[in-house]
Amino acid sequence: MQNLRVISPADRTPDVLRMLDGTAGVATVSVVRGASVTPAGDVVDVLLARECTDAVIADLRRFGLTHEGAIALTSVETVLADAAREAEKRAPGEPDDAIVWDELIARTREESSLNATFLAFLTIACLLSAVGVILDSPVTIVGAMVVGPEFGPLAALAVGLVRRRGSMIRRSLLALTVGFPLAMVVTALGALAAEAVGWVRPDSIDDLQQVDFIYQVGPFSLVVALLAGAAGMLALVSSKSAALVGVFISVTTVPAAGFAVVAATVGSWRIALLSAGQLGSNLVGIVVAASIVLLLHRRSRRLRVN
Which residue ranges run through the membrane (predicted)? Predict the structure, then answer.
């Protein structure tokens, strides 16, 4: 279930209530007249099925409530009410198959911001992957995969492409094109420092046995990226956040970046190029698969409505 809190100008509240009364998936509606001070108006609290949320928000937008009022959306995990169960039965479709576009856009926009936190996590993940390469440690590589925040801007890029939002596309590309080079430069400086003190030898990546899969580019590299991108977007649109961990440890985006840096600093340019190719194929595959999932979701929704 979803909870909508709406700030509505008093003259528009009757129209809002009539719209909600005619929506099959609405379970409960509460109104507190004049409760909102800024902006001035009524507070309408709505509990409704997830399947109907996107349509209800679209109707609320037509009343101009995003400009002269406000709409807040939160997910509700547990509701003990017969009205809620009846609303879910009346609502068309299944909750996990419904996309709440405004929620998805807000989540991906936040996670694709180029800020100090994003850069710090990406840099730490690249440094961890470099250590994992030097130590031939798959456990450390998996740790780098989990720490890496790159799926956020990749998902936002897919949403921007499908929804044709140029601002989201630019925001995501900025995070990726600035974040990865910066993280790789810092990792290169760390690798060179380790080589200077003798922690890394020029032949340190010649006999790797456990992590050499990172730079081995092949058809299955793209297959894994496509599957991970699809699973990641499905996890986002269905609010199954636990599945995202599996996505993080399926693709070798950050490890490939770290491997490329280590290989370049020791002069293994062939491996560096292969690792860069692995990085590129993973990034493209994730975005393509995530975009396809969103397109299929939107198409299936239209077919159900028609």
Answer: 114-135, 141-161, 173-193, 213-237, 244-265, 271-296
* pLDDT tens digits, 100-118: 888 888 888 888 889 999 9
Q: Is 154:160 a contact under the CB 8 Å cutoff?
A: no
- What pTM was computed for the model? 0.84
Read off the pLDDT of residues 239-265 as tens digits, 9 standing for 90 and up. Answer: 666 556 666 667 789 999 999 999 999
In 112-197, alpha helices (H): 116-135, 138-147, 151-163, 166-196
State the chain's maximal CA–CA distance in angstroms.
Answer: 75
Same domain (yes/no): 73, 138? no
Going from the C-alpha of 23 to that of each of 15, 19, 75, 99, 159, the distances in angstroms are 13, 7, 19, 17, 27
Is residue 127 located within the same domain as residue 75?
no
Judge if 181 and 266 occupy the same domain: yes
